[in-house]
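Translate sequence into structure tokens.
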Amino acid sequence: MQTHSLFAVFAAAAVSVAAIPLKAAEEDYINRFDGSWSGSGSAKRPQDDSPWNIRCSMSGNSAQRSITIDGSCRAAVIVSRPFAANIRYNPRTKLYTGTYTGARVGPAKVSGRRRGDAVVMTVTWPRPLHGDRKATLTIRNSGNGQMAITLMDNLRPGGPVEKTTDVRLRRG
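Result follows.
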């Protein structure tokens, strides 16, 4: 019985030591979002044939297991839309969950996982947008001072899923 107990102690220690690099890697990833960000990209609306060119400025803050990105994007001189993502990482489930603000229907719930240098999340709008309540938000940060935000959605009920927002940002 003592051998079995000793084995259990060693097994528990090995599991906790193995989890340390994973936890540190996730914290390092989350810290990549700190700072001021600016850049440009495109946004599509259902009533327009071609995408709008947009310029964005945002600030990112990380805390233990959470990322906050807050700012706005502007098209032309008169159109401005807020952008915010408040997401939290759960090490037990390995899920990122929270809210995304950017669409006219109001704050949406987001949930997803990290895949390499990107967090890929399902967006659940608070009410139907373009005929449904789902989209995909990808926030990519390669750690070299660059971040990309992409929203995939349909622009018409039953229409194809396409890139509706595509923004490239640089820290600084």
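Note: The chain has one domain: 32-171.
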